[in-house]
Amino acid sequence: MVTPAAQAQKEFTVNEAFALIDALLHIAAEGEASEPPASPADGECWIVGAEPSGEWSGQAGAIACRQGGTWLFLMPSEGLTLFDKAAGCTVRFADGWHRATPVALPDGGSTIDAEARTAIADIVGALESLGILPDS
Question: Are 42 and 66 in contact (CB under 8 A)?
Fold first, then answer.
């Protein structure tokens, strides 16, 4: 039997599509690193650092996801967000990866408004609990 063109190993194409969907659906990165972890588990995702080495060479800024015992690299598009487990906050890709920085609560000053400081602390706490800001 002759296999028509573009029909050979179609299960490979379908499996790769499922792996991409699995990697991107509710993406959460373990953190950012420039070299792969020593013993990665399937399902782990990492943001590849600026100077990658080893199996990640040439993949700076990509998302490396471990699938089926190998690394699957995804180049992020503008606006992609993911949760960085190590930083405890969301990370957004816009011409590079960007993370919010911790916010210092008001301290000192010539006029102290306890109610305003409490409200600001509550807002910062809510943003931290949602993963929008890292814990200060």
Answer: yes
- Please state, in angstroms and as integers, the Cα–Cα distance from residue 15 to each residue in 45, 89, 116, following that order: 18, 31, 54
pLDDT tens digits, residue range 88-123? 888 999 999 998 888 888 888 888 888 998 999 999
Q: Which residues pair with 70 in a beta bridge?
A: 67
Torsion of CA 45, 74, 69, 60, to 10 degrees: -80
Picking from 50, 15, 43, the residue whose alpha carbon sits closest to that of residue 29 is 43
**CA–CA gap between residue 9 and residue 115 (Å, rounded):** 66
Place of tokens 């990492």: 46
Q: Check pLDDT > 90 for residue 63.
A: yes
pTM for the model: 0.70
Instruction: Report the C-alpha gap between 25 and 27 in whole angstroms.
Output: 6
pLDDT of residue 1: 45
pLDDT band at 25 (very low <50, low <70, confident <90, very high): low
Task: Give the start-to-end residue ranges of the domains of the chain.
Answer: 1-87, 100-136
